[in-house]
Amino acid sequence: MRIHILQLLAVLALVCIPLDSQKTYAAATAATPAFVFGGVSYLHRWSQNDQHEFTPEGQEHLEKWSDMITMNVYPSAHDGDALSAKANAVLENYKSHRGTVLRTNSVPRTSDQPAEHFIAVMFGRPKFIEVAFARFKLVDGVG
Questions:
Q1: Which of 11, 17, 67, 119 makes a 20 to 30 Å CA pair with 36?
Q2: Contacts (Cβ under 8 Å, ≥6 apart) of 52
Q3: Residue among 92, 72, 84, 134 nearest 109 (CA)
Q4: Whole-number pLDDT of residue 86
Q5: Alpha-carbon span 105 to 42, nearest angstrom
Q6: Domain locations in the chain?
Q7: Tens digit of pLDDT for each residue in 40-96?
Q8: How remote is the C-alpha of 18 from its chain's centroid?
């Protein structure tokens, strides 16, 4: 089974769901997608603090999914250095959980765009392979 976790940082997380410290669950019957990615509609399933999870229709159960997008907001990251520190911390966390780093890439800042970072990691599990793609970007001055 192919498993994808896409961690995207986007303004979408700021617009679609409240960013408070409460744990929330979306109703399993919610039919309005939060967004469409790659032609697939994703519905909000769960949030806690600054982490928000979305799965396609038919994958409501968070213990049994095959495609998930997780958005993490880093409200303390307001500049390139802070964002880079968050990306490096996530990379070290992936490594500490025995993730095999497939690729990392950083795009340097330009005069009109802040730096961005990308991490692709594979985790071997007993019954499946999990792949995480993480993109770190400042959106409206927030990571």
A1: 119
A2: 13, 16, 17, 44, 46, 70, 71, 72, 73
A3: 84
A4: 96
A5: 26
A6: 2-136
A7: 999 999 999 999 999 999 888 777 888 899 999 999 999 999 999 999 999 999 999
A8: 16
